[in-house]
Amino acid sequence: MDFSPSYLKLYERGELEERAENLKQILKCCKLCPRNCKVNRIKGEKGYCRAPGELVVSSAFAHFGEEPPLVGIGGSGTIFFTHCNLKCIFCQNYEISHLGEGKIVSAKELAKIMVSLQERGCHNINLVTPTHYVPQIIESLPFAIEKGLKLPIVYNCGGYENVEVIRLLDGIIDIYMPDIKFFDSKVAKLLCNAPDYPDVVKSSVKEMYRQVGDLKINRDGIAIRGLLIRHLVMPNGLAGTKEVTEFIISELSKDSYVNIMDQYRPCYKAFEIPQINRRITYEEYLNAIKIARESGLYRGF
Questions:
Q1: Which residue of 92, 96, 111, 278 is 20 to 30 Å from 78, comparing CA positions?
Q2: What is the pLDDT of residue 2?
Q3: pLDDT tens per residue across span 222-246
C-alpha cells in the first residue's frame, strides 16, 4: 500500500502556511480547546492549561511501548509536549502535564526534532498532548518538509478537542489517536473538571473519523492513516466501557481499531479519590474485553 503524507499536498499548494497562520490567530484569544479561556497567549497570558505562547517540549525519542502498528521495528517518533488542557487528576505523566517540566523550542527546532526522528528510522511522528500547541506545531511543518520529512503524523490526544480546530487539521493529520476516557459527565467532572467531556469527545472523534476513516495498515504492519482509539479501563467501571463501545459501533465503525488498556495505576492525586485509589483487577480488564467483543469490535485488543 503506497503512502504519501497528506500534508505534503497542502504544502505544495501553499495551503499549509495559510492554515498555520489561521491557527496562530487563535492564540490571541485562545479557544484551541473547549475550555475557551480566551487569554492572549501571544502576550504571555496563560489559561487553564498553563501553556505559554511558545512551544514547550518535554522529550522526544523512538518509543517502543506504543501500539504495534505504530512501533514496527523502528519505533514511534514520539514528542511529548508540556502542559495539558485536560489535567486528569490520575495522570501518569503529571510531571509534564501538571508540573510543567520541559523546555521552550522554536518552530525550526521542532522541525529538526521531527526530521531527526525520521533519520533514526521511526515510522511516524507521534505528537503527545498537542492540543494547546497546534498553531506552533503546524508552523513548524513547512520547515520539516523542506528538510525531507515524509512520515505520517499522529495526533495523540485526550479527546477533549475543539471541533473547529480539528477541522483546520483536515489534510494535515494522517493518524488520529484520541482517548475516549469516560461517558459519564459526573465522572468527567470529578476526574478532569470537564463535565462536558462526554459530549465533546463524541463530536471530536466523529470529525476525526470523517477525515481519516478506519486505521489502514501497510504490508509491513505499519499504520499509515486512520483512527486509532484508546480506552483506559478504570476501577469500579468508571470508564463506562459498555457505553463507549456502543458509541464506536453505532457512530463510527465496527472496524475501528480500539486499544483497551490495562495499565491504570493511581498516580498524582488519584489516592485522594476512593473510587480510583487502586489498580484495576484482572477481572475488570477481562470484563472490558468481553464487553468490547460482544459489541462487535475486534481490532486492537
A1: 278
A2: 60
A3: 999 999 999 999 999 999 999 999 9
Integer distance in angstroms from the first to the last C-alpha of the chain?
A: 23
What is the distance between the alpha carbons of residues 238 and 276, in angstroms, rounded to a whole number?
9
Q: Is residue 301 a part of any domain in this protein? A: no
CATH number at residue 37: 3.20.20.70
- Give the domain extent around 44: 6-295
Instruction: Tell me if residue 38 falls in helix, strand or coil.
Output: coil
**Local structure of 274: helix, strand or coil:** helix
CB 33 within 8 A of CB 49: yes
Where helices occur in 158-295 by DSSP H, the ranges are 163-168, 185-192, 197-212, 241-247, 282-295
Residue 276 pLDDT greater than 90, yes or no: yes
Whether 64 is in a domain gets the answer yes
In this structure, is residue 238 part of a structural domain?
A: yes
Residue tagged 468508571 (cell numbers): 238
- pLDDT score, position 3: 77
What pLDDT digit, counting tens, does each position of 287-297 carry?
999 999 999 99
Residue 149 clears pLDDT 80, i.e. is over it:
yes
The helix or strand, by DSSP H or E, that contains position 177, with its residue range, turns out to be strand 175-178
- Is residue 174 within 8 Å of 154, Cβ to Cβ? yes
Going by C-alpha positions, the residue among 7, 8, 70 that lies closest to residue 218 is 70
Cell representation of residue 215: 486505521
- Give the whole-angstrom CA distance, residue 165 versus residue 22: 10
> For the chain, what is the domain count?
1
Could you tell me the pLDDT band of residue 161, with boundaries at 50, 70 and 90?
Answer: very high
Residue 152: strand pairing partners: none
In a domain, 31, yes or no: yes
